[in-house]
Design brief:
Length: 254
């Protein structure tokens, strides 16, 4: 109850910062716009005037509305949609008074954090009459401009049998999942082969041109190689492979 009385007293004294939910029609009065507040004031003839505090203004025969303030941190950007149809992206840290005369909406959006040289993202942007591809390497905080679209990678995860979607690509050396495939010999005998996949991404654009799901394509290539390998093998050869694998595993070299 004490807190409620203090809040009511603070509201009557105007100590709270007012936002767009504060709209009034005035006759013969004045308004104090505190430091940290802003408002837009329409005259009787419909002309708008923006007032940023601290200020004390006469508001006779006016309609007033206080403004919301939208902020973007160092890892965000502001997406601002203007009344004239333009859309602007402003990298943070920044802040904006959302004026309904000028703006349709404004919101803070997350930027792409590339924390090291081993991370990259890909953006597509319109250049004259074609779509251009832009590869961004870290370390940096990337804020896409209006009209740009970030590439979303969709790579197969064999353990969960699902697609992993991501925008930040690890470049350089990286390890993928362990893949299991069947090796069938020419006489019909078979063995299960387990392979640990690894890769080195040195050219992101070449990767995009070559494959849209690299783990899946590597697994298919492994299966095709095993088919070719198995044609000239028999059961004895498979037993020798199992013995070699056991020996390597026991020595710590597998």
């Amino acid at each position: 109850q004490l807190q409620a009385r203090q809040d009511a007293l603070r509201a009557r004294m105007g100590r709270n910062f007012r936002g767009s939910d504060y709209t009034r029609q005035t006759w013969l009065s004045k308004r104090t716009v505190k430091d940290g507040e802003a408002m837009v004031m329409w005259s009787l003839g419909g002309k708008a005037r923006e007032v940023i505090g601290p200020a004390r203004v006469r508001t006779k025969f006016s309609t007033i509305q206080f403004l919301d303030r939208v902020r973007a941190g160092p890892f965000e950007y502001l997406r601002i949609e203007r009344r004239d149809g333009a859309v602007e992206h402003v990298a943070g840290p920044c802040a904006l008074w959302v004026n309904p005369v000028k703006h349709v909406s404004a919101s803070a959006m997350p930027a792409v954090e590339l924390n090291s040289r081993n991370e990259a993202c890909v953006a597509y942007q319109m250049a004259t009459d074609k779509l251009a591809r832009l590869v961004v390497r870290g370390p940096t905080v990337y804020c896409p401009q209006f009209g740009e679209r970030l590439h979303q990678f969709e790579w197969t995860e064999f353990a969960s049998r699902t697609k992993r979607k991501f925008e930040r690509l690890r470049v350089g050396a990286a390890s993928l999942e362990t893949v299991r495939a069947e090796l069938v010999a020419g006489d019909g005998s078979a063995a299960e082969v387990e392979a640990a996949l690894s890769l080195v991404v040195s050219d992101v654009e070449a990767l995009l041109d070559a494959s849209d799901d690299l783990p899946r394509d590597l697994a298919k290539s492994l299966e095709a190689d095993l088919v070719v390998l198995g044609r000239d093998m028999d059961a004895a050869s498979l037993r020798n492979l199992r013995g070699l694998a056991s020996l390597l595993e026991g020595s710590g070299l597998a």
